[in-house]
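Possible regression after last week's pipeline update?

I re-ran a chain I had predicted before the update to compare outputs. Posting the input and the new output here so someone can diff against the archived version. Not blocking, just want to make sure nothing changed silently.
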Amino acid sequence: MEDIKKRIQSGKTVLGIELGSTRIKGVLLTEEGELIADGSHQWENRLENGIWTYSMEAVWKGMQECYGDLKTKVREAYGAEIETIGGIGISAMMHGYLAFDGNDELLVPFRTWRNTITEQASRELTECFNYPIPQRWSIAHLYQAVLNGEAHVKDIKYITTLAGYVHWMLTGERVLGVDDASGMFPVDAKTGTYYTDMLDCFDQKISDRSFPWKIREILPRPLLAGEQAGVLTEEGAGLLDPEGTLKAGIPLCPPEGDAGTGMVATNSVKARTGNVSAGTSIFSMIVLEKELSNVYSEIDLVATPQGAPAAMVHCNNCTSDLNAWVNILKEFSDTFGFHISGDELYGGLFRKALEGDKDCGGLVACNYVSGEPVAGFAEGRPLFVRRQDGRFNLANFIRTHLYAAFGTLKIGNDLLFDKEGVKVDVIWGHGGIFKTEGTAQKILAAALNTPVSVMKSAGEGGAWGIAVLALYMINKKEGEALEDYLEKRIFQKAESVTAAPEPEDIEGFNQFMENYKKGLMIEKAAVDAL
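New output (post-update):
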């Protein structure tokens, strides 16, 4: 305890903060990557005028309350105040659209990754670049605004992601980690920066609009893991810590997206490794041995934090519908005086799901709270359907919603495995859905027909991952690659549990998927009618 107190007081720590879809999470680590304290703030996006968004006021309220929660826990546990830190890292949900004018004022409300409003731009840019440009990417949002004739476009001086924005406000630096940058505009793995021919193609497409900017001028500068990305300014310290205890001058690592921090948190940054991050949305990242042979709308081509090529399958919907049903069951138990904690309820229901039929007994759920481009939906309507002869019981009901959480992810990954012959030795799972040991992990292994491993820190991956990137920045040896640093200095003693896919589970999931795909016709009817 006394040793930790001295480390806190001398700044031999690192801080990582990740702005997730429903929670802002902060962690303070030792220089060995061990957790000292954490803090959090719950928040939620809002649908305003048809746009999923968060206000910038909510961003800073959440950042301050998250850091304040962490500070309080450090003070109570160790009797120490945080005045300086060895390094800081900021991470957030990727993609989306934050556009600023010459006075650094936000021009339009933040358009998050969850919006599926850029179909025309996505299609045209994919054709122009011969490279997949999903609807949630920043460049798709920008070009759609151009196509829509939105008045603000002429006034743009800078566009960035949420992580890039927070980092900019803390440091004054308009930079971005290469993984997060690769979700704004395509990045060339050979150069670690944006493809020049695609930049030229974009400028040519909008040349008749006579905007006073070129695309190169308004994008953040990509940085590789290990580079220093500025230092905390006096203004930035005040934004993060209004009490004024935290001092300026602390170095920050490149801000990254949640995909990159998930890769770091699961030690899956080298070829033939992958991870699945599951929360409000879900995505898989598999580090490639070579480029894909074809362009697939279901698959993003992005970069690892050190710039290696990776294939991402990103689905907008994962646990939101499942969480809604669990909340209904909690409301039921509370009504009758049975007060069960969230962890107990999720754990009990997930374990019950393992008693269900391998194919879910003829039950089908579609978990589309929002649009799902991988399946071709601009909007979503969560639904549950059963045949009159379906085996409708609690185990099958929960199992169905767990299967549905991974259903669309399987559609995209089947293209990688079956059409491209991509090889992966292990996939690491992280996110709250994996906290109940052996349930979601076992189901995901069946869905992807690949061993799935989960570390003890599976529920807190992103904030810890960006903190580790801050550690890498300040502690790496000359020439030490990120994958070697992680393998030898962070994960050498990591404990994990691996679930291998079982033939009966694989067959059951495939049978469920046949019904799931047929059920998308019902989903389409629901979207059209409601």
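Follow-up from reviewer: compared with the archived run. The mean pLDDT is 95. Marking as no regression found.
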